Amino acid sequence: MLSMTVVTTNTSAYFLDIIHMDTDVLTYFPIRRILVLSVLTFFLLATVSLLRRGNQAVVGAGRAVLITGCDSGFGNHLARRLDAQGFVVFACCLFPDEVGAQTLLKESSSNVKILKLDVTKDEDVMQARTVVQSNLPEKGLWAVVNNAGISDWSETEWNTMSDYHNMAEINLFGSIRVSIAFLPLVRASKGRMLFVSSVFAFFNCLTMGAYSISKRGLEAFADCLRVEMASFGVKVSIIQPGNFACATNILKKKTGPDIWEKLGRERQPMFNREYLDLACDYYMSTCSSGYQDSHLVTDAMIDAITVDRPKRRYLLVSKLDMVFFYALPYLPSFVTDALFYLSPMYNKRKAMLYSK
């Protein structure tokens, strides 16, 4: 009761004070409200303007993009889409005289230039840079898309050191070689650097060790480069596709007998021949269940190249997988390892090892 009386008394006093205010004081309050509302409106409009600016598309006319690995797959499809948007496209192919490159050339405008490029060879990269510099449009080289890469699946002991070196030489060092060569041109235009990685850069999976090493290293390089290039106005994005094996020709087919012969007599006793056949069937079945076309990936690439504020990473998986992959870094290792221990394939593998 006492608190109610105090509130009532204070409220009455407040209104009495307003009634007894002079005219100058009364006119002050509306002006202050107007000023506050004006400031808030200004910041709101500025925020909306910045958000809109983040979605504005970079015009392709007068700008060039270099893409590695355009013989097929993501690179080939991206070259076509950028051509349609008016970009000059330097489509780098390992086999420029074969069907993939020649079909791309035939079905594109004169803005598409086919270049011979093996990312493992310094002389190819330097030659490509010379050609690009001599044929740049007025606004220069806007983006480099490090797309060239290979994939393979194999348990750790099924690989030779040559297998590990080859994977890293193309997927990791090839991208570094191309990036260093073309960075001065991209820096001059304050453009973009793109790196095609994989979910296997951060997801440890049975049989994907060599591939994961190359992609994890690639992301480390891209992350460091992004921080360094920010001072020059260059933006760096990482593309992380999930299962797009059917949408590209990256799927490498192998058979149980192929693996068996490669193991040699020392390791053959550890791995059942039937398990090798099972592993091949399982791998091919899993890859075949993925995305059938590359639009999700090329959409992300276009976004990274053309919007004012591209994402640092583009995770390209199903919505359900995305929830899992976002949670993955926060899960303890024993939990993530248990995902494999509980899988039927892992248990079949364990039961078949060493058996005749």
Automatic annotation (TrEMBL):
Q: Which GO terms describe its molecular function?
A: oxidoreductase activity
Which keywords appear in this protein's UniProt record, sorted alphabetically? Membrane, Oxidoreductase, Transmembrane, Transmembrane helix
List GO BP terms, alphabetically: steroid metabolic process
Instruction: Tell me which family the UniProt entry assigns to this protein.
Output: Belongs to the short-chain dehydrogenases/reductases (SDR) family.
Q: What is the lineage of its organism?
A: Eukaryota, Metazoa, Chordata, Craniata, Vertebrata
- Show the InterPro entries listed in the entry: NAD(P)-bd_dom_sf, Sc_DH/Rdtase_CS, SDR_fam
What Pfam families does its record include?
adh_short
**Transmembrane annotation, as ranges:** 31-51, 193-213, 323-342
Q: Which PROSITE patterns does UniProt cross-reference here?
A: ADH_SHORT
Q: What is this protein called?
A: D-beta-hydroxybutyrate dehydrogenase, mitochondrial
Q: Which domain of life is it from?
A: Eukaryota
Question: Cross-referenced SUPFAM superfamilies, in alphabetical order?
Answer: NAD(P)-binding Rossmann-fold domains (SSF51735)
The UniProt record lists the keyword Transcription regulation: no
